[in-house]
Design a protein that fits this description.
The complex is a heterodimer. Chain A is mostly helical. Chain A is built from 10 helices and no strands. Chain A is elongated, with a radius of gyration of 17 Å. Helices cover about 25% and strands about 35% of the residues of chain B. In chain B, the strands form 2 sheets. A 4-stranded mixed β-sheet of chain B has the order 1-4-3-2. Chain B has a 4-stranded mixed β-sheet with strand order 5-8-7-6. Classes of the chains: A mainly alpha, B alpha/beta.
Chain lengths: ~160, ~140
């Protein structure tokens, strides 16, 4: 069975890209599969599998990386309270936000804020969209899977978590 | 200028479609459009940039084998090609104008670090950033 990068129809890929773009543009919004499938004009049954095959990550996990990325930018660039950042980036509870954030980045939101402020300079020369893509968390395993892998350890350094 | 970069090419899924997009929607001009058998050398130019051509090429024979061409079509369609940047004087005005003619925007104009940028894709999936650079006061 051919499952290489070239095995998917480019017309389908172009429509899947549209769903990815829509999540990028509004990652704070809820993106249930039926909504994404509608954007891509494919059946719900095929959407998640096709998306993962195309982009190497399930759609809901992709959304999670985008939310963490936005939250990181807001922590770095604004003085918004962490509760407000959690709310603005699409989480319904502060607890889920903090836990997911630590699982993905290896640090707490407040630690990331402190460190980003201490080290951020010179980014203004690169288009911000590219800066943010360069800083995107590389989430290739499920968050729950990571949690199982390092039981009880939520302070694992970021370098170990982000490959 | 006699030395420097003259042509940079994009892969597109259909040259007629790309031509219509870059010329009729974005306002580029055709620089060269010549055929040799199945091969079509097509380049367009920004009206304010006479020394640079943007090539609009389809991956395929005789340059590439069918499997390589298919891989490249897939890469373009999933937005995996490198970033492209278009400078504009007024990002919000350009956004309104291009959106009205049906350009697929991926990001509305946003101001950051004093610049205003928006994002759009060509019909094939190539992603552009449209940037209005901060006006320098000196």
């Amino acid at each position: 069975m051919s499952r290489g990068p070239a095995s998917q129809d480019p017309e389908l890929l172009r429509r899947l890209l549209r769903a990815k773009d829509r999540m990028d543009a509004a990652s704070h919004e809820p993106w249930p599969v039926e909504r994404l499938a509608r954007v891509s004009a494919v059946s719900e049954a095929h959407f998640a599998r096709s998306f993962k095959q195309a982009f190497g990550i399930p759609p809901h996990r992709y959304l999670l990386t985008r939310r963490i990325e936005r939250a990181t930018a807001l922590l770095r660039d604004t003085d918004l309270a962490i509760t407000e950042i959690a709310f603005q980036t699409g989480w319904e509870s502060l607890g889920t936000f903090g836990r997911t954030f630590r699982d993905v980045t290896g640090e707490s939101p407040s630690a990331v804020r402190a460190r980003a402020r201490a080290t951020a300079h010179g980014l203004g020369r690169m288009p911000a969209c590219i800066v943010s893509a360069a800083h995107r968390p590389d989430l290739t395993t499920a968050v729950s899977e990571k949690r199982r892998r390092v039981p009880g350890d939520t302070n694992t350094p970021a370098a170990k978590e982000i490959r | 200028m006699s030395q420097g970069v003259e042509v940079v090419g994009l892969y597109v899924r259909d040259q007629d479609e790309a031509l219509a997009f870059y010329v009729e929607k974005l306002g580029f001009r055709v620089h060269t459009d010549v055929r040799n058998g199945d091969y079509r050398w097509l380049t367009v130019q920004h009206p304010e940039q006479p020394s640079f051509q943007l090539g609009l090429f389809t991956p395929g024979p005789p340059v590439l084998d069918a499997e390589t061409a298919q891989t490249l079509r897939a890469m373009v369609a999933k937005g995996a090609m490198p970033p492209l940047v278009l400078n504009v004087d007024d990002c919000r005005a350009a956004y309104d104008r291009l959106r009205a003619v049906g350009v697929e925007f991926t990001q509305e104009p946003v101001e950051r670090y004093g610049n205003v940028d928006a994002g759009f894709r060509d019909p094939s999936g190539n992603g552009w950033k449209m940037i209005q650079a901060q006006r320098r006061s000196h």
